[in-house]
Automatic annotation (TrEMBL):
PANTHER family in alphabetical order: GLUTAMATE-PYRUVATE AMINOTRANSFERASE ALAA (PTHR43488)
Keywords: Aminotransferase, Pyridoxal phosphate, Transferase
EC number(s) stated in the UniProt entry for this protein: 2.6.1.2
Assigned protein family: Belongs to the class-I pyridoxal-phosphate-dependent aminotransferase family.
Protein name per UniProt: Glutamate-pyruvate aminotransferase AlaA
Keyword rRNA processing: no
Species annotation: Halomonas alimentaria
Catalysed reaction equations from the record: L-alanine + 2-oxoglutarate = pyruvate + L-glutamate
Molecular function (Gene Ontology), one example: pyridoxal phosphate binding
Positions of the Aminotransferase class I/classII large domain: 37-386
Cofactor(s) the protein requires to work: pyridoxal 5'-phosphate
CDD domains named in the record: AAT_like
Biological function: Involved in the biosynthesis of alanine. Catalyzes the transamination of pyruvate by glutamate, leading to the formation of L-alanine and 2-oxoglutarate. Is also able to catalyze the reverse reaction.
């Protein structure tokens, strides 16, 4: 019998996605043994009692009998029309039906877009910390993720000098995640304009991941990057139903191309995108029936983020409790579903943050994700999902504080 190991492809050598990494496997084993684990590791609203709006569910159920066939590779016409109208509301100019691609979540479209753009060795500027799928997808496509630092002292704004210093002849694109996962930062228009100016000077494609654009706290406004870009800049905006509409399991997201003059120049890239979209035939059709209703009319997410809203209360208690732990500091998240606190290295002795979250899991039965999983270079941050009820979060953070008191130098 041949015992030669069957190995994974070398294409996967620099690809990792540790949000669902080895520590989660450990948590699953503990659950199989009957232990209760509080999972604060994944931004999945449904298990925490956040239900999708009823009208969305009705749409999907009513349309199920007619959603049996494949649809156009870019998506249902009615759904794309609704996304086009959303672009008009968000002031992203010049977006037509053919500029919109619907995917099985933003995740599929991130992978697809980077596969279509990158040649071996091409570089993509990606924030640190990042949502790690961007880094994984750039590397999988044969490219090289180059991380630009976001500055915790400046509310996690992108460090523009760091970006400039990392641009080379190989840089093809820049990724902006706004509102940001994991930091909760929401970038003001001035910052976006500066990022766009850098991208324009160096002819970079701009990817703007805006999946949390409606999860905003404290009256902060979200401005779409595409609304500020000139016609000569190609902006690829990503958004979807998973977070604001609480139906991550439906796997429904979209990608929008804007910049009318740039699109002419990008015809070859766009043809590549269209071909990749057709290779996977189409996105899940039943879920596309939710898009028109989701985007139009009453936005139930507002009830969760305005004063008295559940998400706002949970953001507040997380922020408060974290900052009350000696040696821990947390910038107040202005959007999204996460907190990304700093654990002061002068206070805590953390050499390996994955080991630290594993120790936390074993000792306190709480699952977090270590900062380095978000391509943050030092082992001094963790990400906490702010989805559980406030009392559950309060209890979890008390346990985290107790755990950290043992981790002190
Ligand atoms: N982009 C960001 C910033 C995310 O946080 C996530 C999921 O957590 C995604 C994209 C993927 O979303 P989807 O469910 O649409 O694939």
């Amino acid at each position: 019998m041949d015992t030669t190991p069957i190995r994974k492809s070398h294409k996967l050598h620099n690809v990792c996605y540790d949000i669902r990494g080895p520590v989660l496997d450990h948590a699953k084993r503990l659950e199989e043994e009957g232990q209760r684990i509080l999972k604060l590791n994944i931004g999945n609203p449904a298990p925490f009692g956040f239900e999708a709006p009823e009208e969305i569910l009705q749409d999907v159920m009513r349309n199920l009998p007619t959603a049996q066939g494949y649809c156009d590779s870019k998506g249902l016409y009615s759904a794309r029309k609704a996304i086009m109208q959303e672009c008009q509301r968000r002031e992203i100019p010049g977006v037509g039906i053919e500029d919109i691609y619907i995917g099985n979540g933003v995740s599929e479209l991130i992978v697809m877009a980077l596969q279509a753009l990158l040649n071996d060795g091409d570089e993509v500027l990606i924030p640190a910390p990042d949502y790690p799928l961007w880094t994984a997808a750039a590397n999988l496509a044969g490219g090289h993720a180059v991380h630009y630092r976001c500055d915790e002292q400046a509310d996690w704004a992108p460090d523009l000098d760091d970006i400039r210093s990392k641009i080379t002849a190989h840089t093809r694109a820049i990724v902006i995640i706004n509102p940001n996962n994991p930091t909760g930062a929401v970038y003001p228009p001035e910052v976006l304009r500066e990022l766009l100016e850098i991208a324009r000077q160096h002819d970079l494609v701009v990817f703007s991941d805006e999946i949390y654009d409606k999860i905003l706290y404290d009256d902060v406004a979200h401005v779409s990057t595409g609304a500020l870009a000139g016609e000569d800049q190609l902006v690829v905006t990503m958004n979807g139903l998973s977070k604001s509409y609480r139906c991550a399991g439906f796997r429904s997201g979209w990608m929008i191309l804007s910049g009318n003059i740039a699109k002419q120049r990008a015809a070859d890239f766009i043809q590549g995108l269209t071909m990749l979209a057709s290779m996977r035939l189409c996105a899940n059709v039943p879920a596309q029936h939710a898009i028109q209703t989701a985007l139009g009319g009453y936005q139930s997410i507002n009830d969760l983020i305005l004063p008295g809203g559940r998400l706002l209360a949970q953001r507040d208690i997380t922020h408060e409790k974290l900052n009350a732990i000696p040696g821990v500091s947390c910038v107040k998240p202005k959007g999204a579903l996460y907190a990304f606190p700093r654990l002061d290295p002068k206070v805590f002795n953390i050499q390996d943050d994955q080991q630290m979250v594993l120790d936390l899991l074993l000792q306190e039965k709480i699952l977090l994700v270590q900062g380095t999983a978000f391509n943050w270079p030092e082992p001094d941050h963790v990400r906490i999902v702010t989805l559980p009820w406030a009392d559950q979060l309060g209890d979890a953070l008390d346990r985290f504080a107790r755990f950290l008191s043992r981790y002190r130098q």
